[in-house]
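re: ur msg from earlier - yeah i can do the iron/sulfur cluster complex, just paste it... oh wait u already did. ok heres what im feeding in:
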Amino acid sequence: MIKEAKVIIHNGKQYIPDLRNVKLRAPFRGRPEISTEKVDEQALVNTCPLGAISTNPISIDLGKCAFCGECAFAFPEKIKFTQDYKLSTNNHNCPKVL
Ligand code: SF4
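and the outut:
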């Protein structure tokens, strides 16, 4: 019940009325963007508790990522989470963001 109340307080409704045009607000984390900024890649890989980040080039396996945001907190110049929620795919070999 408390969880549902939090959703209503945060979003105003318990459902999303217009799925195609909705603008989700922070702290929602959607599709990550990876910049071309040079960082310590091994340190970045080590920040991920789930092993979702790999190098050459830096990429995030969205099948493993829990969207905890630790990598973006530690390396805000390299990784940024957008509010884009359209992350699903029918291709099982294609869940990585480069
Ligand atoms: S958001 Fe969390 S789980 Fe996802 S890649 Fe970053 S550190 Fe790993």
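cool cool. The first strand starts at residue 32 and ends at 34. ping me if u need the other ligands too
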